[in-house]
Design a protein that fits this description.
Shape of chain A: globular
Shape of chain B: globular
Largest sheet of chain B: 6 strands, mixed
Radius of gyration of chain A: 25 Å
Structural class of chain B: alpha/beta
Largest interface: A-B, 64 and 78 residues
Helix content of chain A: 55-70%
Oligomer: heterodimer
Number of helices of chain B: 21
Number of helices of chain A: 11
Radius of gyration of chain B: 26 Å
Largest sheet of chain A: 2 strands, antiparallel
Number of domains of chain A: 2
Strand content of chain B: 15-25%
Strand content of chain A: under 5%
Chain lengths: ~350, ~575
């Protein structure tokens, strides 16, 4: 999990940097992306302590990954989409999502073709049953992927590189530094690449494989050449002179602590709902069990004693806790907006 | 005791007969602002790097360097004592955000986290970087990046700040911004500063001491006031280097009416005004009208009207060109219109981000305008030289570089229509050799392109472009980071090309260079061309955006834009 998060940071941060890196070094961007970045500052939740923000987003991602239960997937999708739009704007949200929707439709369509369980037969395809339950299963699987993506869109906005560094810098200081250096290299190299490609174009080079190979060759030697300077600059500033300290840019305030506590409680309740109560839900043979075990269905696991099966309102509380956890930033935003009145 | 004592220091690279530095002995006092100058290859960088052991060049050294009474430093002590700022701002920045960069050095020194916060805050306030404190480094301008480099060194409380051509990669406005901050550091923090720099114009009047190197020897180490006099009397090399002096100083050296040479425009105006009103000192004619004749006059007289001025046909015309880099981004060019006449050197000046470089790329066909047209006279080849010559090099030696048969590819459909065959454009070995000779690169052919000096690199890149035999040459900041020698060489090459009938369009910040060599000059502002004039008229009509001679003489002696425009009547 940690490795993927890291990869996402590099990739996510990288792509953002890359698209933003001016092709020439004098174009200052005054476009939508910039405005979105500013929009972030008008909100209050991104200004909470990175640990609180990270707890929120990690909880959202983890819970989303843990269940295929339709109601949970729906809650996650609706709130995640809201938040992503709130943070990134419609345009960016949709731009990212449209590619994923293709994947979603493929998963949703392929699952019932390969999986023939379920009682509700919608129609027959090539002599095989095409069941509603299998379709629902496919939709939920695809939906989970979409949700994950939507939450990572939020993650990109909420946990900027420096916040990530702050959070993990003390656990793995060298790794954190290397990540920051890579993040720095991406736009610089991108600019050099454009520059070189343009210069070759001006010389009349064909845009072929050979030219591409040459460009990457130059890029490589330029980067190596330049990295000597970087190494010099690091040594000149005492890197490797002994133990390092790590600068803490954030302090945990009571409000942050309260948020962390509240989010933790909501997370535990949500996990209870998802992992334990959620087990009563089954897709096959018939989909059901949102608020208790289906009659005729078997209740697996720990609470498999009919008398002890939890009451429906407990299930409702589980959903509520999950929704409340995901809506937490909105609650803070609302409170913040009310203070302006 | 002096802060830095250099005793008979010498240096040579391993396996190299010649000494890069020899017999250097000098003391630098605490709080001195020392300008280190000399032509490229005179050993400036080697000397400055030798003062910082960790990044000193590897080779054989002799003599002693004593800093703060000590000869040896641990890595940490060195980082706390000597700070070093290099040429390329992009390469020396390590972290991706501004505040991480500021914290980087302090973290290395194991400063407690609370203390780091405090120091970063102080430094940010001192350098005025609060506004971009939270930004990512790649969003900063070149000048801001270099200021950040300086700030992060000063945050470590280094006593001595060494800067190796810190403005070479910056445009003049960013360079001024940076030097302004540097002067503030010198004045308000009292740091000892050693800086090597080609831009004497901005620095000379503010330095305490000047250190002039020639072939690895210290030829001059003394006050800035006496430096011009020394250069004038120091043989051929000194005289050429004197071209790098501020224009007022150059004029004063040419017409020495007082021992005290002006070092900036303000002093230059006083000097000129004094010369204009000075009484004739020869004595006997003191009571006649002649005594009132000013010493200086403007030597320039506009060429006589020939009646029908031949106006050459434009080889390039841009008609209502609009361009932007992305669908949602701001327009970089907004309805830009301009014509470049055949056989002229047309310079485009203007502030950063006004779209100058973009315009060149549009002309060269690398970028396609979203609206409007670029018309290039039929059969004309366009060659373009980019701002960073490094982006052009692909080979291990200059020889391979120049003979790279790039030109087998056809440039555009127009040429194909013109019926040009591929073979015509292949650079033959003879052509390569001739070109190298023409540009004075013959001795460098076996060197790696990256090992060349800035001036040589620029010439090598130019050679590579010229091998395509362009009829129209587009240049992006050809004089950036060059010393007076290289500038002169580039100018000579351009003049020769013009004689051969090549049309040159140049984007530049170098007003002195433009005033001297450009036939026509346009100013780009707000993404469009707002004024075009003949080179001379352009600078005469500009009030502020003009050469220092023009600024110095305006109102005292109108119509002068170059040092050679001001003449002096001989006495008696």
């Amino acid at each position: 999990m940690k490795v993927t998060t890291l990869a996402c940071v590099i990739k996510g941060g990288g792509t953002v940097c890359f698209t933003k890196a001016p092709r020439t070094n004098h174009v200052i961007h005054k476009d939508g992306r910039k405005m979105n970045a500013n929009k972030n500052f008008s909100q209050i939740f991104p200004h909470y302590h990175p640990a609180a923000v990270f707890l929120y987003i990690a909880a959202a991602v983890a819970c989303t990954m843990l269940t295929l239960q339709p109601l949970y997937v729906a809650i996650s999708f609706v709130i995640g989409s809201f938040y992503s739009i709130y943070l990134n704007g419609w345009k960016k949200y949709w731009f990212g999502l449209r590619w994923l929707l293709m994947m979603f439709f493929i998963i949703a369509a392929v699952t019932p073709i390969t999986n023939h369980r379920g009682r509700t037969v919608l129609f027959y395809l090539f002599g095989e049953k095409f069941t509603g339950e299998a379709l629902l299963y496919g939709v939920c699987t695809g939906g989970m992927f979409v949700c994950m993506f939507v939450w990572f869109q939020c993650y990109q906005r909420l946990i900027t590189a420096d916040k990530f560094m702050y959070l993990f810098g003390r656990i793995a200081p060298t790794l954190a530094m290397v990540v920051s250096m890579i993040l720095r290299l991406v736009p610089v190299t991108g600019r050099k690449l454009h520059e070189t490609a343009d210069a070759r174009k001006a010389l009349g080079a064909d845009a072929g494989v050979k030219n591409g190979a040459k460009i990457s060759g130059i890029l490589m030697s330029r980067c190596m050449e330049d990295s000597i300077d970087t190494a010099d600059s690091m040594r000149a500033r005492g890197y490797g002179s002994g133990k390092r300290t790590v600068f803490k840019a954030y302090k945990i305030k009571p409000a942050d602590a309260a948020s962390i506590l509240l989010l933790s409680v909501l997370l535990i309740l949500s996990l209870f709902g998802i992992l334990i109560l959620g087990k009563t839900f089954t897709f096959f043979p018939t989909a059901g069990g949102f608020f208790g075990a289906q009659t005729g269905g078997q209740m697996p696991g720990l609470l498999n004693i009919p008398d002890l099966s939890p009451p429906a309102y407990l299930y409702a509380a589980g959903y509520a806790a999950y929704a409340a956890m995901l809506l937490y930033p909105f609650i803070l935003e609302l409170r913040y907006l009310l203070r302006w009145r | 005791m002096a802060l830095i004592e250099i005793q008979n220091y010498g240096f040579s690279y391993a396996g190299c007969e010649q000494n890069v530095l020899s017999g250097i002995s000098l003391d630098i006092d605490a709080g001195d602002f020392v300008l280190v100058c000399g032509r490229s290859g005179s050993g400036k960088t080697t000397l400055l790097r030798s003062l910082k052991r960790e990044i000193a060049p590897v080779g054989i050294s002799g003599g002693e360097i004593i800093i703060n009474g000590k000869k040896k430093f641990t890595l940490r002590e060195s980082a706390e004592t000597v700070g070093f700022v290099m040429q390329d701002p992009d390469n020396q920045l390590v972290m991706d955000s501004v505040w991480l960069e500021l914290a980087f050095g302090l973290e290395n020194l194991a400063v407690p986290p609370e203390e780091i916060g405090r120091r970063i805050g102080e430094i940010a306030a001192f350098f005025g970087i609060e506004k971009w404190f939270g930004k990512n480094v790649f969003e900063l301008s070149g000048g801001q990046k270099q200021i950040l480099c300086l700030a992060s060194v000063i945050a470590m409380q280094a006593e001595i700040i060494i800067l190796d051509e810190p403005t070479a990669q910056l445009d003049p406005i960013a360079a001024e911004e940076f030097l302004h901050v540097l002067k503030k550091v010198g004045k308000e923090l009292g740091k000892t500063i050693l800086i090597s720099e080609h831009r004497l114009e901005e620095l000379l009047s503010d330095t305490d001491k000047v250190l002039y190197l020639e072939k690895g020897n210290v030829r001059y180490y003394g006050t800035n006031r006496e430096f011009p006099m020394f250069l004038a009397e120091n043989g051929e090399e000194g005289r050429i280097y004197a071209e790098a002096l501020p224009a007022p100083t150059r004029l004063s050296l040419q017409y020495p009416i007082s021992k005290n040479h002006p070092l900036n425009v303000r002093e230059g105006r006083k000097w000129l005004a004094a010369g204009m009103t000075q009484e004739d000192t020869s004595g006997q004619k003191a009571n006649t009208e002649n005594a009132k004749i000013p010493r200086f006059y403007c030597t320039y007289s506009p060429p006589a009207e020939t009646g029908n001025v031949l106006h050459p046909a434009p080889v390039i015309s841009l008609k209502d060109v609009w361009f932007r880099y992305g669908k949602d981004e701001a327009f970089v060019l907004k309805g830009l219109e301009t014509k470049i006449d055949e056989g002229t050197l047309h310079a485009y000046v203007g502030s950063n981000g006004s779209g100058k470089s973009t315009m060149l790329k549009v002309i060269s066909g690398i970028l396609k305008p979203q609206r409007g047209k670029v018309v290039i006279a039929p059969g004309k080849r366009v060659g373009m030289l980019f701002q960073d010559p490094k982006s052009l090099f692909v080979s291990d030696t200059l020889r391979a570089e120049l003979s790279e048969h790039l030109n087998t590819g056809q440039q555009n459909a127009k040429e194909r229509k013109a019926g040009e065959t591929k073979t015509e454009r292949i650079a033959t070995p003879e052509a390569t050799r001739d070109m190298a000779e023409k540009l004075g690169l013959s001795d460098l052919l076996d060197r790696h392109p990256y090992d060349l000096s800035a001036g040589e690199m620029q010439k090598a890149a130019l050679a590579k472009v010229l091998l395509l035999r362009p009829d129209i040459l587009l240049l992006d900041e050809p004089t950036k980071g060059l010393d007076a020698f290289s500038k002169r060489e580039i100018a000579e090459i351009l003049m020769r090309l013009k004689e051969e009938g090549v049309t040159i369009a140049m984007v530049t910040h170098d007003l002195e260079f433009t005033a001297q060599y450009a036939d026509r000059c346009s100013m780009i502002f707000g993404s469009a061309v707002i004024a075009t004039d003949s080179g001379r008229a352009f600078f005469e009509n500009n009030m502020f955006y003009t050469t220092s001679v023009s600024r110095m003489s305006r109102g005292i002696l109108d119509g002068c834009i170059l040092a050679s425009d001001i003449g002096c009547r001989e006495d008696a």
